[in-house]
Design a protein that fits this description.
The chain is mostly helical and 431 residues long. The protein contains 16 helices and six strands. The strands form three sheets. It has a two-stranded antiparallel sheet with strand order 1-2. A two-stranded antiparallel sheet has the order 3-4. Strands 5-6 form a two-stranded antiparallel ribbon. A hairpin with a 2-residue loop joins strand 3 and strand 4. Helix 13 runs antiparallel to helix 14. It is globular and about 60 Å long. NADPH dihydro-nicotinamide-adenine-dinucleotide phosphate binds next to helix 13, strand 6, helix 14 and helix 15. It comes from Ovis aries. This is Transmembrane 7 superfamily member 2.
Amino acid sequence: MPREPWIWKGACGGQGEPESGPPDGSPPSPGAAALMLLLPVTMFHLLLVARSGPARLLGPPPYLPGLEELWSPWALLLCLTWLGLQAALYLLPARKVAEGQELKDKSRLRYPINGFQALVLTALLVGLGVSAGLPLSALPEMLLPLAFAATLTAFIFSLLLYLKALVAPASALAPGGNSGNLIYDFFLGRELNPRICSFDFKYFCELRPGLIGWVLINLALLMQEAELRGSPSLAMWLVNGFQLLYVADALWYEEAVLTTMDIIHDGFGFMLAFGDLAWVPFTYSLQAQFLLYHPQPLGWPLASFICLINAVGYYIFRGANSQKNTFRKNPSDPRVADLETISTATGRRLLVSGWWGMVRHPNYLGDLIMALAWSLPCGVFHLLPYFYFLYFTALLVHREDRDERQCLQKYGLAWHEYCQRVPYRIVPYVY
Ligand SMILES: NC(=O)C1=CN([C@@H]2O[C@H](COP(=O)(O)OP(=O)(O)OC[C@H]3O[C@@H](n4cnc5c(N)ncnc54)[C@H](OP(=O)(O)O)[C@@H]3O)[C@@H](O)[C@H]2O)C=CC1
Ligand SMILES: CC(C)CCC[C@@H](C)[C@H]1CC=C2C3=C(CC[C@@]21C)[C@@]1(C)CC[C@H](O)C[C@@H]1CC3
């Protein structure tokens, strides 16, 4: 089955590629190389534009920062301290240790479920720090050098992961990302679950430093707004509240990440390392960055309506994810036992009623509705705060396409039947 066709088609423009990527002797994948450059450039563009007067997403950046504005040893130190703190919290005793999916060699890895605990302890530490005089509101001024330090860290980290994979046994390698093409493999990642003892790098990075970093940046922006304007704006409160709910939810239901394709299928390379450590905290906080430099008036009636949109999105997102997780854990659980299902040759069944009978990816629908609610407090006169919504639509459409091809391979005719019975993918009667 083809993997990451958006990268691979760039190299050969064809269909039916092998799982492992470009065949021997093919030229370096221009798709992977271009993305490796384009993703950090886009992130810096967004950071620069968010603080510029016109805040034009599609225009040129206001200026090109010099190395002296990007590079700061203090920012690198802060970035490494942050990673060290999150790593220490990861190693604390967990309320539960979960088993991952079965690996090629029939073994299962074990993962600590203590992400929510890490969020709470980080909040306590930050609270203590702020009351002792830690200048959190100075963080927004350092976003550029911090993003540079995070990008550098992700790059060096991916290099080390690539080298580590050279000595890993074949059974530890990911189905993709092992084509022999250095750029392609560096980008996608070679090893499936790189670990040192029980410390799982991919699982650690997927949720904690990036997601908790994102809400910390949001909070720093809120505090700086309070210093500048006397109090945080209603729009800033909404963005902070909505995104905190999203991050707290992800960490509370951390175990669910063990069944995502990122953990089960994808190697850990530059794409995920950069995505987790730099892209998530610095671009997902774009709305709060925009609001600090471009305050938006927002009245209570409109704010209540936006809260309602977020609540509807969250209701669908959580309802769909929980329904599937409950069903996968125990199909006879009374909460899902009455739902209609289709049997498959693998023995696993597919839900065809409830949320999963409405569209084939109801959780994506809820996630997208929430993404819209995060942009609306920023008004409708700038495209920039809608970047997340646009990028996320593209990401989920691509993800849904990949997932459907994997499900078709896994479930064959049963998946065809599911597609016939539930014809829409994400938005009922539209897509
Ligand atoms: N904010 C962000 O940047 C991102 C957020 N997300 C969010 O993370 C969450 C997880 O997303 P993701 O990992 O992509 O995928 P999903 O949680 O949607 O999982 C897809 C899997 O669910 C199972 N499945 C599909 N249809 C059915 C059905 N009808 N009945 C039972 N099982 C079914 C299949 O696996 P199997 O049959 O093997 O169980 C399929 O492979 C989502 O809520 C998504 O919105 C994801 C990516 C980025
Ligand atoms: C830099 C690239 C454009 C792509 C990077 C992709 C990553 C940012 C995302 C891949 C899968 C993700 C998931 C989440 C965050 C974004 C990344 C890491 C969640 C943790 C978000 C919260 C949800 O509740 C679960 C998600 C799982 C997948």
